[in-house]
From TrEMBL:
PANTHER family: AUTOPHAGY-RELATED 2, ISOFORM A. It catalyses: a 1,2-diacyl-sn-glycero-3-phosphoethanolamine(in) = a 1,2-diacyl-sn-glycero-3-phosphoethanolamine(out); a 1,2-diacyl-sn-glycero-3-phospho-L-serine(in) = a 1,2-diacyl-sn-glycero-3-phospho-L-serine(out). One of its GO terms (molecular function) is protein-membrane adaptor activity. Belongs to the ATG2 family. Its main location: endoplasmic reticulum. This is Autophagy-related protein 2. It is found in: Endoplasmic reticulum membrane; Preautophagosomal structure membrane. InterPro entries: ATG2. Keywords: Autophagy, Endoplasmic reticulum, Lipid transport, Membrane, Transport. GO terms for cellular component: endoplasmic reticulum membrane; phagophore; phagophore assembly site membrane.
Amino acid sequence: MDEPIVTWLGNGPTFMVDNHFTVPAARSDVLKAPKSFPLPVLRYTLCEMSLTWNMFGGTDFRQTSETTSKK
């Protein structure tokens, strides 16, 4: 399997920030909101849900060397 390729679309350089994300002190419930969030006004219970995910092939961005065709 090939390694992933990252394409940077910005004009400036890419830089990394060490320790940007903090490591959690203990395992927590991922479905609960963080303690910093306000208390909810209402609560909804989801009993049943269907999800349809359509994926299409193709490219979202043109190569920079291509010119835009005018109609």
